[in-house]
Design brief:
The protein has helices at 20-47, 49-62, and strands at 7-10, 14-17. It is mostly helical and 67 residues long. A hairpin with a 3-residue loop joins strand 1 (7-10) and strand 2. It starts with 6 loop residues before the first strand and ends in a 5-residue tail after the last helix.
Length: 67
Amino acid sequence: MLALSATVVARGRGRVPLSEKTGKALDAEVRKMIVTAHERTTVLLTKHRDSVENVTQLLLDKEVISR
């Protein structure tokens, strides 16, 4: 569960205090955004699984990982 502090950084205004109700509302909106993005990513990766696997194999075959 996400938990916002009692303040949030607002562009150009420094830290702005939040009520608990506002913090919970922001948490809920952020949670919805994350869940939606996760669901969309899962759908896209599933739909394009063959392409993802092809790219993965190409990278494993061609790329060199070194320190």
